[in-house]
Amino acid sequence: MKYKIKHTTHYRYSSQVSMCFNEARLTPLNNAHQSCSKNQFTITPAPEVTHSRVDYYGNQVTSFDILTPHRELVVTVQSEVQVSDHS
Fold first, then answer.
1. C-alpha angle 65/70/75, rounded to 5°?
2. Under DSSP, is residue 83 helix (H, G, I), strand (E, B) or coil?
3. What is the SS3 assignment for 17-73?
4. CATH number where 22 lies
5. What is the CA radius of gyration of the chain?
6. Neighbours of 62 (CB within 10 A)
7. Mind listing the pLDDT tens digit for each residue in 61-82?
8. How far is CA 5 from each of CA 10, 35, 55, 71, rounded to the nearest angstrom?
9. What is the pLDDT of residue 85?
10. How far is CA 53 from CA 27, 44, 50, 71, 82, in A?
11. CA–CA distance, 7 with 22 (Å, rounded to integer)
């Protein structure tokens, strides 16, 4: 079965922030029972720096830095995951 997943995190700050540094663990794992064929991040405001790595537990970590003043941060991730029957 194929799933389309959409996750949005929306921050509204009480006052303007000058910059922020973030890590997101929002990428589905690839393993014997599932496969992630699409994983697209949309970040507003747009980050100046983006980097991906795999953590100790095998999770993909997406790091991003926003270096401009802002009052809101919106992170949306759209994924497509194929899940196999493992009964």
1. 55
2. strand
3. ECCEEEEECCCCCCCCCEEEEEEEEEEECCCCEEEEEECCCCCEEEEEEECCCEEEE
4. 2.60.40.2250
5. 15
6. 20
7. 999 999 999 999 999 999 999 9
8. 17, 13, 22, 27
9. 81
10. 11, 21, 10, 28, 22
11. 16
Q: What is the pLDDT of residue 87?
A: 63
CA distance 69 to 45: 9
Give all strands of the β-sheet with 49-54 in edge-to-edge order: 20-24, 60-66, 49-54
Residue entry with tokens 């830095």: 65
Instruction: Show the tokens assigned to 52.
Output: 């991906």
Q: How many structural domains compose the chain?
A: 1
Tokens of 2: 């194929």
Domain extent, residue 27, equals 2-83
User: How many other C-beta atoms can be found within 10 angstroms of the C-beta atom of residue 73?
Assistant: 19
